[in-house]
Amino acid sequence: MTILVTGATGKTGRHVVRELISAGAEVRILTRHPEEADVPSGVTVVRGDLTAPESLHAALDGVTSAFLFPVLDAIPAFAETAKRAGVRRVVLFTGAWAAGLTARDRGSWVYPRYRAAEAALAENGPEEWTVLRPAPFATNALWWAPGARADGVVRLPHPDAVCPVIHEADLAAAAVRALLTDGHHGRHYTVTGPALVSQAEQVAAIGQATGRPLRVARIEPATWRSEAERFLRPGIVGDLLGEWSETERDPATALPVTSAVPDLTGRPARTFTQWAADHARAFG
Ligand SMILES: NC(=O)c1ccc[n+]([C@@H]2O[C@H](COP(=O)([O-])OP(=O)(O)OC[C@H]3O[C@@H](n4cnc5c(N)ncnc54)[C@H](OP(=O)(O)O)[C@@H]3O)[C@@H](O)[C@H]2O)c1
Asked: At what angle do helices 272-279 and 199-210 cross, to 10 degrees?
């Protein structure tokens, strides 16, 4: 029983690989850069690109289940190729905005894109599919690391915006349960951290974890937008700014905490304080 992990060299996927290995699974990873892949011993590395379906055949040969990283435009072809290759089960992650819980989410740039990817998997992929819709990642706080290291200041347009951010290890643990246990087929799970936490509170937790207090400076949304558009798609930048300004003004409009992580993994979801301790080194 071979499990293919895509996105395996990334922040979430590397936890998926580790958890699968500790559960005794046979793991193969797909990467565009096999020569750079740093994986646990016993893991097979296959070169491939999700946007190049012909490169997936070798990766999918003999695979029973797959963890699917959301290169959204590539999901339809992956779903069909995986089904033809005899893959039985796929676990995809998209994002909590796909749940469309608020008018803001349903009007977001990413909503129809997530929904189209999810539908392509459900309609054309292997029969046993599960979709995890994670809250915004705690790892987004890594965007603040350069400022924290340079002058101890984190510049934010909406420091009091709140969100139940999720630790990438919890997203991975939930995915592994959906890959290895039955009863999750045809299900969408919105997976969140254990509590709403503001960005200013996250900055304070990072300061505590590093032992070097950080200062928050409020900046204009337009300033953040012009910086963020260097590494994020403009649509995502707009979605983030919309969510932050609304949840800063009215925290009741934030994504609610769900019990999906404890329900799936049998453990409480990790707090942001835990995340900060796990990543303190990134902040110098
Ligand atoms: N940030 C958030 O708040 C949030 C919330 C919900 C969902 N998401 C989704 O989560 C993703 C980021 O997850 P992450 O932080 O775990 O990833 P990450 O650390 O950015 O790593 C990206 C991974 O994706 C793989 N990859 C990218 N393009 C690929 C392609 N064309 N073919 C094959 N592999 C490809 C990379 O593999 P190689 O380089 O080895 O090929 C790498 O393993 C975002 O792209 C977003 O869609 C993010």
From this structure: 40
pLDDT band at 214 (very low <50, low <70, confident <90, very high): very high
pTM passes above 0.90: yes
Q: In this structure, which residue's CA is closest to atom 3 in ligand 1?
A: 136
> Of 32, 36, 69, which is best to mutate to test ligand 1, by the most ligand atoms within 8 angstroms of its C-beta?
69
Q: What pLDDT does residue 172 have?
A: 98
Domains annotated for the chain, with CATH where assigned, are: 2-135+167-192 (3.40.50.720)
Residue showing tokens 């290895």: 180
Q: Where are the beta strands (DSSP E) in 103-203?
A: 128-134, 153-156, 162-163, 187-191, 197-198
CA of 46 to the centre of ligand 1 (A): 17
Look at residue 1 in the predicted model and tell me its pLDDT: 87
